[in-house]
Design goal:
The protein has 236 residues and is α+β, with helices and mostly antiparallel strands. The chain has eight helices and five strands. It has a five-stranded mixed sheet, with helices on one face.
Length: 236
């Protein structure tokens, strides 16, 4: 249990009754843990998630719920982690009819806690990305994937960089990618020879089969899951 000590120290310092707890009459303090692994579905926004820890806090004389997200890596600037917490803030606000608040990230590798403030402009960008993703997922086809990013700045650490690069180099026409992105994809494929890239027919075949299987499964299930989002909790 490599992270147990970090979690215990955080509890002792931040939860009332802890051996190292000091409120210091702070304007915002934790009252208790409201829930853990809380499942939240928000049909109005078309998003769902599971909040690691939902905290009940008192801030400026008002009680509200606040998300705490646990990360097993080291602390550092991460737009993905911040976006996740901002979405949880939005979801808690919608579910419990409270004003939009802030949340926190706890990095278990080094014990650093980082506050995440919810900003309207950033949330707008996040929801736009959600809508773009939903658009393509609802019409998902092998030959109708969204265009690649124009700037590969964030692609180096992406889990799908290899497959994405192969798709751009071996399957798609080169003019569909920006020069920067295509050069990144080519460099990412530098370990492959021309003979390797010639197996694109094999790649295409299996990708098409996977898409056919996915489409068949979706058709068999019908519209039940889609309708679920349009129902109230009582109807579900």
């Amino acid at each position: 249990m490599p992270y147990a000590d970090v979690i215990m120290n955080w509890i002792q310092e931040n939860i009332p009754g802890g051996t190292s707890y000091h409120s210091n009459n702070a304007s915002c303090f934790i009252q208790k843990v409201h829930d853990i692994e809380e499942n939240i579905w928000v049909p109005q926004l078309g998003i769902k998630g599971k909040v690691d820890v939902t905290l009940k806090v008192k801030s400026d004389g008002k009680t509200r719920l606040r998300p705490l997200e646990l990360k097993t890596g080291k602390s550092g600037p991460s737009s993905e982690h911040a976006a996740q917490v901002m979405l949880y803030n939005l979801m808690l606000s919608s579910r419990y009819k409270q004003t939009l608040g802030n949340g926190s990230l706890l990095y278990l590798k080094d014990g650093v806690t980082r506050e995440v403030r919810s900003r309207a402009l950033e949330l707008k960008g996040i929801m736009n990305q959600r809508n773009n993703l939903a658009f393509y997922l609802s019409r998902l086809k092998f030959d109708l994937l969204p265009e690649p990013r124009t700037d590969p700045r964030f692609c180096g650490k992406c889990d799908q960089a290899l497959v994405c690069s192969f798709y751009q180099v071996a399957i798609e026409p080169p003019d569909r990618s920006s020069k920067l992105m295509y050069n990144f994809a080519k460099a990412n494929m530098g370990h492959l020879s021309e003979s390797h890239l010639e197996v694109s027919a094999y790649f295409k075949k299996w990708m098409r089969w996977i898409f056919y299987e996915w489409a068949e499964d979706k058709a068999r299930k019908g519209s039940k899951l889609e309708d679920l989002w349009r129902k109230t909790p009582e109807e579900r």
